[in-house]
Amino acid sequence: MIIDNTNYEIGNKAMASVLLLYYHLLNEGGITNDQTVYLDQNDFNGYDFLGLEVREGSGRNLDLDEALIREGAVIYLLCDLDDIIGEYEEDFHCQPQTKKIIGALKEHETSPISEVALLLELIAVPENEFNHPSYDLILQGIYKKYVHGFFVKKLA
User: Fold this and answer.
1) What pLDDT digit, counting tens, does each position of 110-146 carry?
2) Which of 18, 71, 88, 107 could covalently link to 92 via disulfide, CB atoms 3.0 to 4.6 Å apart?
3) Residue in 1, 103, 114, 117 with CA at minimum distance from that of residue 51
């Protein structure tokens, strides 16, 4: 998706949605269940913003944080993936939503969150070999670095 001076309101709603998601993640202390339910799907979903590009136009500063929105899109998808893994422990690979999320994350290999590649490697094994503690550790690291870290940098 490209955001420029003709559709910047989409970028504003996306930033607001990411900040709302991060607020709920902070309240929970990590990526837990059902955190994307707070977001309006018409304003933001992770799929549409993975490849976001903000193009500043003729002297107009859109004041959009492209990195935040792209990272938020990945975090959004990781929240949904975690929901599926938690709900369908024994057969999460068979769920269409799992395949869609993994496909979207793989399609954007230049993810702003480098740890996603390692997470996808852990998930690629059969469910009976899935290392849930390692998965949780990586997910918590992503939360600390990108969600918690975002606010720490802003407050520094």
Assistant:
1) 778 889 999 999 999 888 888 999 999 999 999 999 9
2) 88
3) 1
CA distances from 31 to 35, 50, 143 (A): 8, 19, 7
Token look-up 């002297």 returns 59
Stated pTM of the model: 0.92
C-alpha angle 138/141/142, rounded to 5°?
A: 90
Alpha helices in 29-156 (DSSP H): 46-49, 66-87, 96-107, 116-123, 132-142, 149-155
Query: From its phi and psi, is residue 111 left (phi > 0), alpha (psi between -120 and 50) or beta?
Result: beta
Q: 125: which 2 tokens?
A: 């094994």
Query: What does each C-alpha distance from 131 to 2, 79, 109, 138, 151 come to in angstroms?
Result: 37, 18, 23, 11, 30
pLDDT single digits (tens) 13-67 = 999 999 999 999 999 899 987 777 878 888 899 999 998 988 887 666 778 999 9
Task: Please name which of 57, 54, 53, 52 lies closest in space to residue 5, comparing C-alpha atoms.
Answer: 57
